[in-house]
């Protein structure tokens, strides 16, 4: 055993940071055995040293001077979130040759390349298993285990908060706002949960995953993003009636010479494995030329599960420090570009509110046909009004169509006097 302790600076003591502090302190002996050197948590940078925490530590560990703490450390663990000052602090550490563990997907999906370049310059390691799908090992499998294969597609549920909300709406009939409040209480949501419900958190993860899977440089700006704020209780009910469940899916797939990266609510058949991903669990499918299809499943959010991924990265970095040698840089040799949505082909479920008159349905199906959007099923229900002024809801599930054709078709349908409202357009996957 090496006698020299590895000094750890922890930035942030929220849901995840406090659990990391707990593990570093409670499991110090085991960690030392696994690493081959003692581990010393030298301080925790916070905004308010007197705030109440999820796990209480010796008060002298808290400091508001993050820079001094970083300068005194061997390894920095960043769990504050947000772009600044996290970016500047991580750069400070990496430039000083200190390896960094971070769970900050928002930062990595925007400035990941800049941070990796800084790490490469000094031989430091930047690791971020916690940034995608919480406790699930997915970064390391993509970066290391599959580095000799050709990944063609990564698809999955990569946000715990939205999965929790949609699952509660589906299984208990909960209201969106109540389910979101519960996800926040359980420590799943981002500090600003807009990032979760608007799809930006999943989009950050998709950009990170696509960069690793396709050996290219993607940022969140390369991702087509639709969140779940437009998903209504009626959509959930209609999904149930049609044998589907709504999930927020992230899809990164090889598309000709590029990669299409998107996040959108998706109808998944009840029999599909993704349909049984409940609560804040995540599941990620990876398809590769030689490996075939792989599935990664587990807790995608929450303090302790995420801390587990952080500690895994930390132990790996600390072991390398004991043995010597630089961090492993990532490859972006393929330099693939993100492709536009217009050629993406999917099935769709379209909800309409229409006047229930002779010829209305025939007119709508004609417009679909004229735009090369073939209808698989159609269901009509009376909504309100008497025989003279009856209003109906129509739910159409299509065969596969391009995004461009569907968009044009919807514009023409929307312009019909007999169509009151297009209530929803949701993609369908998995059949
Ligand atoms: N909560 C979860 O399930 C997961 C979170 N993450 C990521 O881990 C990071 C931390 O997440 P949580 O612990 O949930 O957030 P949190 O909001 O519970 O904790 C963040 C802590 O950092 C502190 N902080 C913020 N800015 C600071 C600054 N400038 N200086 C010092 N302290 C500062 C806040 O006061 C807060 O205590 C984020 O990047 C998040 O995206 C990643 C995976 C899962
Ligand atoms: N807010 C995120 C936390 C984990 O990444 C989520 O809900 O998945
Ligand atoms: Na992970």
Keywords:
binds the ligand N[C@@H](CC=O)C(=O)O; 431 residues; HDH; 17 strands; six-stranded parallel β-sheet; Alpha-Beta Plaits; binds 1,4-dihydronicotinamide adenine dinucleotide; NADP binding; 36% helix; 14 helices; eleven-stranded mixed β-sheet; Rossmann fold; ACT_dom; alpha/beta; binds sodium ion; 3 domains; Dihydrodipicolinate Reductase, domain 2
The level-1 CATH class of the largest domain:
Alpha Beta
Percent strand equals 25-35%
Number of separate helices: 14
Shape: elongated
Largest sheet, in brief, is: 11 strands, mixed
Ligand species:
1,4-dihydronicotinamide adenine dinucleotide, the ligand N[C@@H](CC=O)C(=O)O, sodium ion
Distance between the termini: 55 Å
InterPro entries: ACT-like_dom_sf, ACT_dom, AHAS_small-like_ACT, Asp/hSer_DH_NAD-bd, HDH, HDH_cat, HDH_CS, NAD(P)-bd_dom_sf
Binding site for NADPH: 105
Pathway: Amino-acid biosynthesis; L-methionine biosynthesis via de novo pathway; L-homoserine from L-aspartate: step 3/3; Amino-acid biosynthesis; L-threonine biosynthesis; L-threonine from L-aspartate: step 3/5
GO molecular function, one term: NADP binding
